[in-house]
């Protein structure tokens, strides 16, 4: 779902560039305070690398259309939404600069939609779900959180297309959300598998429970 | 409520590294060539022609390294190079952020364990 140059008008790309830059700057600041140990550095770097690689794999869905993994929900469930936003911004910047995938004027828009929105929706739904169900049904919650992160990101893109006058709002939402409800299934499967593999019950919590 | 944390087991991260390299290097040439969701919508609703690139100087446009006769190698190599660049850029920038924080903490007397 990389917006190319030309889909957004000047007011939309200029606004999203400014807001996107602010979101990245704020996330960098939050990340500075949030890195809990230097052991996390190679992990975050490797997850970014994985997200990049997985995004290359377009999978066929229906009607001669494909989708691919985005990764905002995965990175945020693993490392929190601020580091998630930084990872997604880095992926999008390198894709645009090195591989001409996604535009330059719309980098801010892409960072806001697939990065910021994807990360915060994915993380928010995951955290809320875990709290609501007391940590049960983690696989299901992870799936729904990552599926919703894609649907929300596609709705964000639809809003920007409509704001730019490229496309009528109702139609844009219906078309974008419709396709990404299918693509989101792939996102859900990959996120559930990788997060399930890399997350384990916290030792501190186990100890804490023993002390109570 | 049970809390989960990211595993510290090296073996699992090595498996992820191998999956990443295999995905970028070997699977990427066989990705679906069909348009993705946004491209499909743009085609169906007649605004795909508005797409244009403002820069023509990307070193590896469209995930294909130039000058190699085999498509699978062009794409696979692009994938491995991209995965390497990603890891390097994130490593350096996150490391830079966390070490700056370390210094700031040494000066003030630290604000305890930074939790996400």
TrEMBL record, chain A:
Compartments, as annotated in UniProt: Cell membrane
Ranges that cross the membrane: 41-61, 73-98, 104-126, 138-165, 177-199
PROSITE patterns cross-referenced by the UniProt entry: SUGAR_TRANSPORT_2
Keyword field: Cell membrane, Membrane, Transmembrane, Transmembrane helix, Transport
Topology with respect to the bilayer: Multi-pass membrane protein
InterPro entries (alphabetical): CbiM/NikMN, Sugar_transporter_CS
Name by which UniProt lists this protein: Cobalt/nickel transport system permease protein
Species: Paenibacillus harenae
Lineage summary: Bacteria, Bacillati, Bacillota, Bacilli, Bacillales
């Amino acid at each position: 779902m990389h917006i190319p140059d030309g889909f957004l008008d000047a007011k939309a790309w200029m606004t999203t560039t400014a807001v996107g830059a602010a979101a990245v700057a704020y996330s960098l600041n939050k990340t500075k305070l949030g890195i809990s140990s230097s052991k996390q550095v190679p992990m975050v770097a490797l997850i970014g690398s994985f997200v990049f690689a997985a995004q290359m794999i377009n999978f066929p869905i229906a009607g001669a259309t494909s989708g691919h993994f985005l990764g905002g929900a995965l990175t945020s469930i693993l490392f929190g939404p601020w580091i998630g936003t930084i990872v997604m911004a880095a992926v999008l910047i390198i894709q645009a600069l090195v591989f001409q995938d996604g535009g330059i004027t719309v980098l801010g828009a892409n960072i806001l939609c697939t990065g910021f929105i994807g990360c915060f929706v994915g993380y928010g739904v995951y955290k809320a779900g875990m709290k609501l169900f007391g940590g049960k049904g983690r696989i299901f919650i992870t799936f729904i959180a990552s599926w919703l992160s894609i649907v929300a990101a596609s709705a964000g893109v639809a809003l920007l297309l409509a704001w730019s006058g490229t496309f009528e709002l109702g139609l844009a939402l219906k078309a974008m959300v419709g396709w990404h409800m299918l693509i989101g299934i792939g996102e859900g499967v990959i996120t559930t598998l990788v997060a399930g593999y890399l997350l384990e019950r916290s030792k501190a919590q186990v100890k804490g429970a023993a002390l109570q | 409520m049970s809390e989960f944390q990211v595993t510290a087991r090296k073996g699992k991260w090595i498996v992820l590294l191998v999956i990443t390299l295999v995905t970028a290097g070997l699977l990427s040439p066989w990705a679906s060539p069909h348009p993705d969701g946004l491209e499909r919508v743009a085609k169906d609703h007649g605004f795909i022609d508005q797409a244009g690139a403002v820069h023509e100087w990307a070193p590896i446009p469209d995930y294909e390294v130039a000058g190699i006769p085999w498509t699978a190698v062009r794409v696979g190599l692009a994938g491995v190079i991209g995965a390497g660049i990603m890891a390097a850029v994130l490593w350096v920038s996150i490391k830079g952020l966390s070490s700056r924080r370390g210094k700031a903490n040494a000066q003030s007397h630290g604000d305890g364990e930074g939790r996400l």
